[in-house]
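Technical appendix A lists one of the benchmark inputs used to test multi-chain prediction within the project. The record comprises three sequence entries:
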Amino acid sequence: MLYDDFFKHPKDVSVILKRMEELTHITGPIRLMEICGTHTMAIARSGIKTILPQSIQLISGPGCPVCVTPTNIIDMVLDLSKRPNLLITSYGDLLRVPGSIQADNLLHRKASGSKVEAVYSPMDAIQIAVSHPELEVVFLGVGFETTAPGTAACILEAAAQNLTNFSVLCLLKRTEPALRSLIESPDFAVDGFLCPGHVAAVIGSDAFSFLSDDYHLPGVVSGFEPGDLLYSILELTSMIAQHQPALKNEYSRLVHSDGNPIAVQLINDVFYPIANDWRGLGHIENSGYAIKEKYALWDTWKKFSLHPALNKPNSNCRCAQVIRGTFSPTSCPLFRKICSPENPVGPCMVSGEGACAAAYQYEI
Amino acid sequence: MEDRITLDYGSGGLKTSQLIDSILMPAFQNPILSQLGDGAVLDGNNKLVFSTDSFVVSPWRFPGGDIGKLCVCGTVNDLCMAGGTPKYLSLSFILEEGFLFSDFKQIVTSIGKEAKKAGVMIVTGDTKVVESGKGDGIYINTSGIGFQCLNLPGKLGIRPNDSILISGSVGCHGAAIMMARAGLLQEGSSLISDCQSLHLFLDTIQNAAAPGSIRILRDPTRGGIATTLNEFIEGTPLSIELSSADIPIDPSVQAACDILGLDPLYCACEGRMLVICDPESTDSILSAMKMIPGGENSTQIGTVTNNLPGKVLLRTAIGGKRILSKLSGMQLPRIC
Amino acid sequence: MCLAIPMKIQSISGPSATCEAGGLTQTIRIDFIKDASPGDYVMVHAGFAIQKMSEKEAIDNFKLLEEIQNAL
């Protein structure tokens, strides 16, 4: 696609940067938060932080579904993996996430005999269930609104096929309640948001207008190429300079104001919002999805009557503050010393998209 | 003969002989092997290069090759990168009971073909069969001996301003295997492994380069070029600076990596050569590399400096900079 | 939170479509894409197309961006 290339190799990078610099003379130092882990990774890979004006600081928010899944849930999954004839299927992201014991994760359990399989799509998990009727197949349904419609379609498919040896452990999360909780927290200090382009592709850019409507904070729904990021940061800086917070859509080649109504309908058909625990943000009303009663047969929570233990986070791990943007990964006492991508303590190090992993791998 | 390998074929008795006589000997025919001694007696007055490697690739058949081709290329390339012209290979199979004879024959044929191409003789070998469930179909070990033709100083010979060259696009093998493993690779796909023997590259560049101008050669297998480049300079006062625009990446490799959430710079190559050489010899070595079939896209990807000791620095498309660190753990497909 | 890749639809069969990117073809699901047809570009996440991409919108978008740059 020609136009995609335009965003991959933006022209006039120096012009954009110069304009940003001028604007920061008006704004003073500003802090912009990306709330999508794919943005965190795209920012790290493009090296954008090394060319931005010094007074623009980019910080990573709670945007990785793996990072925000609490320890007690991981412990519960690890426990589940001990059952005979049960196969856990998951996106690769989750396999290395430790529970409350460092280095205890699904990969480790696999090495000790548990059945664990990485899949690319929930449909692959269904395929495995179809071809292995002797196994009970559980799919770990993590993700945000981008991943939710596919997970819903997969539950509908299992229902249509009347597949009795398959269920989904729904760990899906919703962005808006988490963002509101973050903004309302006492140590919140962010001047604008880069909004997640692929979440918005599903739920619509309008779903983020509460940022300016309710909190007078500017937001830009952004794509993931270096050009997208540069333009979005420029728009945010410009809105801050003009004191005119609004919600803008830089990713209009994909994102509509109402998103994808069919996908939204599918989410609403299969799931309903419930309160959820987030690593770093705590208990937030309506911030997760649960599977509706109608599809209870494919709900791992109900099928196995699961009850997670109480949460016992590592006392030295600063991921909670990192996720809220109040603490930088490199100032954590565990960073590089005890906590590394090979042997992660906290979730921000474990996921390739976590703020700590990005800092570990890419920062100079 | 049955259609599947049974435990009897690893017994050392009659069935083992049948396997050797009917499948292995015809494929690798040479006077040293045909003596079928406990070991091979080899000629040579040269300084020797010796290397070994084991192959457990799954799936064993992948676009662009199979475990047979790979087990020859792997050891041949290790010998070449150490400056040795590959001469002799040993070949050991660990087969899982129930493995299909037809598949085994296909693998043996690939080995014979690639060995001939690379100019190496299979001079000794072994076959074991393990019970069903105790192996992943087939494992192969090859060890190789080469005659030294190029004396390489190695890491200690690397100097600031040296050039870093690559013999083609990166990450093809790793990306193809990951896609095949995820079941995402369809028939006729343009994504194929770069698996090939590098003996011609060694022959050619040793003639093209002034004596002492080549510091080190390496085929960037597991961990990709990012990991290999780090190994060159970690713990030294030197750094390596690359520009992302100069690194050749096939569109199909980039697409596969975008689908799976991987980075091509960390995906294995099985037929590419990284060269560090002195700046004066860069042009002559590069033009020689480009003449070799499979080396047409050879190019310089970076330079050795001492700006950031022990680190590999990548300049991005928008002029940003980032560190390229070693691969941590294995690459897993991810959604986020 | 959401890796995705733009792919071009080559053919459609029920809820599935064969798509292409960088010479790679893949079978994906298009359950929630309205009026998908061969030639369309879709954004693919975890085996599902999440939305169509629009060339016209993209062109409008960077015209707008150029205006921002020039006006500033």
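Chain C has a mean pLDDT of 86. Chain C is about 25% helix and 45% strand. Comparable benchmark entries are summarised in Table A2.
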